[in-house]
Amino acid sequence: MSSDFEDIYYRNVDMIYKICFIYFKGNKYDAEDAVNSVFTKLLEKNKQFESLEHEKAWLIVVANNYCKNKVKHWWNKNKELNFEIKSEDHNNEILQIVLDLPDKYKIPIYMHYYEGYSGPEIAKILNIKENTIYSYLHEGRLILKDILKEENYE
To answer: 0.90 exceeded by the pTM?
Structure first.
């Protein structure tokens, strides 16, 4: 394993894991498999990046595409996911609430609030119209606000 690959891995593994974790609704085993697949693809492609942002964006797109394809797979459509967040890194009630959001809100909300991406950056990475991203963020915030209000997080 090259030093460059190790550097990329350690810089991004937590972020990629969180994205995969969200897609697989907290199933840590599927998330770990997805992370392995994303970094295996990086090794296979021997990708050279222009900047750290290019590196991060490429990995997010690969993780996003991999997870979408896996989630669409018939086995995953029929598999019941029963989970609890046990990892200390994910033992966060707000993250649990984000995980429970409808699928279309999870990744944009995570990317914006946990990774600091802007609406245009998220739109470009996910290949979704910018206005759609803003709608997802707005609607997702409204849903979160209602849930947090119900759970007395005010």
So the answer is: no
pLDDT digits (tens), the chain, 154 positions:
567 899 999 999 999 998 888 888 778 888 999 999 999 999 998 888 999 999 999 999 899 889 888 877 644 444 443 344 444 443 367 777 877 788 788 888 888 887 788 889 888 888 889 999 999 999 999 998 888 888 766 5
User: Which amino acid, residue 66?
Assistant: Y
Domain edges within the chain: 1-84, 91-154
| Sole residue written with tokens 């891995």 | 9
Q: Which helix (H) or strand (E) covers residue 14, if one does?
A: helix 3-23
Four-CA torsion 9, 10, 15, 21, nearest 10 degrees: 70
- For domain 91-154, give its CATH number from 1.10.10.10, 1.10.340.30, 2.60.120.10, 3.30.470.30: 1.10.10.10
Q: Which of 100, 105, 140 is nearest to 126 (CA)?
A: 105
List, in sequence order, the alpha helices (H) in 47-150.
52-72, 74-78, 93-99, 103-113, 119-126, 130-150
